[in-house]
UniProtKB/TrEMBL annotation:
Keyword set, alphabetical order: Aminotransferase, Pyridoxal phosphate, Transferase
Molecular function terms, GO-annotated: pyridoxal phosphate binding; transaminase activity
PROSITE patterns in UniProt: AA_TRANSFER_CLASS_3
GO cellular component: cytosol
Similarity-based family: Belongs to the class-III pyridoxal-phosphate-dependent aminotransferase family.
The protein, known as: Aspartate aminotransferase family protein
Classification via PANTHER family: AMINOTRANSFERASE, AMINOTRANSFERASE CLASS-III
Cofactor(s) this protein cannot do without: pyridoxal 5'-phosphate
Keyword Transmembrane helix in record: no
């Protein structure tokens, strides 16, 4: 099974052009095997993508069958059974009020579509003055210009500043850093949510289109779970001021947190909801935007169609793959496994790292966990960004045969360090132990290599 690949300079503009990446050769459940036969346990599903692992028979067969029938038919001329069935599945399982789906090729496309749809919705209503989006610091919504504009990643935005849509940012719900010692969780959540109301009032509600938020923040900050009541208050504020709520579940959605949609656990729904990653589990490139019938009807009764479109939207093969992924999750009760293995992972992380001097916080839900690294766990002082501890952890983890997703998020505009774990929904207790053991060795090696 070892394949010899002649070494040559890559012609791909990689994320890290000078990094020597191993060649992924094949998948085996939660493992990726490289061309030298080395096995890596995929504890982050790449970036919270591969929720079924890497070699699922049903999904592979569904893709083959669809390609044998027809791989693609342009949506100006045809619809397809997998696209119609996938839209039905999403709408039937989605939180209340989301009655239509718009199928795209990934997370950024889903968010970009949501921003445009929200804008068009108000234009159809004759409310052209609305031009502001409000989002949160320490959030990520994608890399296309609109999605980047609403994201809170300051250092990336600064590079593209003059060409981005103006977005106002408020605080994320980040209890570990921002909850005051004399404040209850509930009071903290209300205080932070009320920042949105203050911002709407200062901009003038008639100028605001929507509030955009991840129910559970992923990549930028290592899994920020909201405190109870925060999102209920957010929903209330949006309704009171007549602005839309766009929830971005590209990373946290499709079962990752122990319910199909993360917002269900907050008991709120959205006007527009975006999903991607776990929708197709990486077997094909796919994302979706779900929308309310209020928006659908306003657009179709108005100019008649959504002024948007991509060549590969509702791609038949991608939809067939996503449908098979979702059927596999349902038929095997994998969301129950997310809940059960999530509890095992939580307790293994707490017992391994609960007293670690450089680990300040361990937080998450289901199989979506974040570990925040600090210089001092008592003062919560962030690690010096110049040390690039997150990069050292990634290297050490890959050497151990572990894929995790370390990041240098932003804490008050400065970089912080965290590790994100999002293993496949198919893992068992042995995999949990392997992940935590390898992670412990990787963190220790990385800290030593960084002189800590
Ligand atoms: N939104 C969130 C919450 C994400 O985590 C991501 C990707 O990490 C995106 C949007 C963008 O998705 P994609 O990389 O598929 O464009």
């Amino acid at each position: 099974m070892v394949v010899v690949v002649p070494s040559k300079k890559s012609r791909i503009l990689h994320r890290q052009p000078n990094a020597e990446l191993p060649m992924a050769f094949m998948g085996d459940g939660p493992y990726i095997i490289d061309d030298n036969g080395k096995r890596y346990i995929d504890a982050s599903g790449g970036a919270a993508v591969s929720c079924l692992g890497h070699s699922n028979t049903r999904v592979r067969q569904a893709i083959k069958d669809q390609v044998d029938n027809i791989a693609f038919a342009h949506t100006s001329f045809f619809t397809s059974k997998p696209a119609e069935d996938l839209a039905d599945f999403l709408v039937e399982h989605s939180p209340q009020g989301l009655d239509y789906a718009y199928l795209v090729s990934g997370g950024s496309e889903a968010v970009e579509s949501a921003l445009k749809l929200a804008r068009q919705y108000f234009i159809e209503l004759g409310q052209d003055s609305r031009k502001y989006f409000i989002a949160r610091r320490q959030s990520y919504h994608g890399n296309t210009l609109g999605a980047l504009a609403v994201g809170g990643n300051l250092w990336r935005k600064q590079q593209f500043a003059p060409i981005l849509v103006d977005t106002e940012h408020v605080s994320p719900c980040y209890a570990y850093r921002d909850q005051k010692s004399d404040e209850s969780e509930l009071d903290y959540g209300l205080r932070i949510a009320n920042e949105l109301e203050q911002r709407i009032e200062s901009l003038g509600a008639k100028n605001v289109i929507a509030f955009v938020a991840e129910p559970i923040v992923g990549a930028t900050s290592g899994v920020l779970t909201p405190v109870p009541g925060y999102f209920k208050r957010i929903r209330e504020i949006c309704d009171q001021h007549g602005i839309l709520l766009i929830l971005d579940e590209v990373m946290c959605g499709m079962g990752r947190t122990g319910s199909l949609f993360a917002c269900e656990q907050e008991q709120v729904s959205a006007d527009i909801l975006c999903v991607a990653k776990g929708l197709g589990a990486g077997y094909q490139a796919i994302g979706a935007m779900l929308l309310s019938d209020k928006i659908y009807n306003t657009i179709t009764d108005g100019s008649g169609f959504f002024q948007h479109g991509h060549t590969y939207q509702a791609h038949a093969t991608a939809c067939a793959a996503a449908l098979a992924v979702q059927q596999e999750i349902q038929d095997n009760n994998l969301i129950d496994n997310v809940q059960n293995m999530g509890l095992k992972l939580q307790s293994a992380l707490l017992s391994q790292f609960g007293n670690h001097p450089n680990i300040g916080d361990i937080r998450g839900r289901g199989l979506f966990w974040g570990i925040e690294l600090v210089a001092d766990r008592v003062t919560k002082k962030p690690l010096d960004p110049k040390l690039k501890v997150h990069s050292a952890i990634k290297t050490a983890a890959m050497n151990e045969g572990l894929i995790c997703y370390p990041g240098g998020g932003t804490i008050d505009g400065k970089q912080g360090n965290h590790i994100l774990l999002a293993p496949p929904f198919i893992i068992n207790e042995k995999h949990v132990t392997e992940i935590v053991d390898k992670l412990a060795r990787a963190i220790d090696t990385a800290l030593v290599n960084c002189g800590l």
